[in-house]
Amino acid sequence: MTPPVAVVGAGHAGRALAGHLALLGAEVVLWNRTPANIAEIVERGGIEMEGEAVGFGKLALVTSDIKEALAEAQLVMVCVPAFGHRDVARLCAPYLRDDHVVVLNPGRTFGALEFIHELRAQQCIARPVVAEAATFIFASRSTGPAQSRVMRIKHAVPVAAIPVDRTPEMMEQLNAWYHQFTPAESTLDTSFGNVGAVVHPVITLLNAARIESTHGRFDFYLDGVSPSVAHVLEAVDRERLAVAQLLGVQVRSLQDWLLSAYRAEGGDLYEAILANEGYRGIQAPPTTHNRYMLEDVPMSMVPMASAGRSFGLTPRAIEAVIDLAGLMHTTNYWSRGRTLATLGLEGLSPAEIEQVAMYGYDVV
Question: What ranges do the domains of the chain cover?
């Protein structure tokens, strides 16, 4: 009998994944920290799905008890904002087993490393697989407290495991439900393949007045990207690729990623974004205080800038976005974000960081 799949987090991503997995025939356990946020899902017994996945996804269990959620599951799909990864690791630490496969959907930048770093801090005895996806498998939104709409299922989602020699174990678990997951060489590939770090903060910043005046009543990608905005996206993207190269990683450009994930073609980045039907209908957030900023700036852009600075590159476009985001939100994202220091990687060479990203902290 196939073990249940645990979905950790019941926000936009968690609801969509739990409901879709249930439609595929999986026995799904959905966990959320706050009982009030899942009360209607408990009452209904599942999630109503629409869009590319239509039907009622009946869930086996909906709970706020993490021990109960992990008890029988083997595959654990973590769907919380990246700033919650450390807390989830702390909550899971006493209950994880060696046979658990924990996948961060997505990890943003260095998510799997942060998760393992916290497990070590909690003196977790178990040695589960900890993996991260480069992006979330769906373009989706919650349409109600127990409803979710999947606008598009991506065609290819790279995912990497720590330790890397347990990749076949991870892929067996994931491909039982989704063929779209493809193995990456290491979590550096998925961390720097994180294109959300480029698109989310830049489009939000350059549309701040429009977001605040309309409360997000426009298509975030299709209306929010002009040729000029695309030029800024390209500058930030070039720096993402440059920092990745410093660490020995070759990743796709944003334009190439759009072709791979969505089959969106164009003569340049602007045209490729407009050609992406998966973006159609995705509304802008109602405020600039949203995950595109609160998550992607400290948990994606700051670690990229930190890595670049450590090895002699000054990523001025990325730094400009971080600084502007901080000014806009009157906060210091540099002090709130993941850095090589907070991850226990400061002082390591690129080759040593690569080894940690593949095999964990025990190798250094």
Answer: 5-186, 196-345
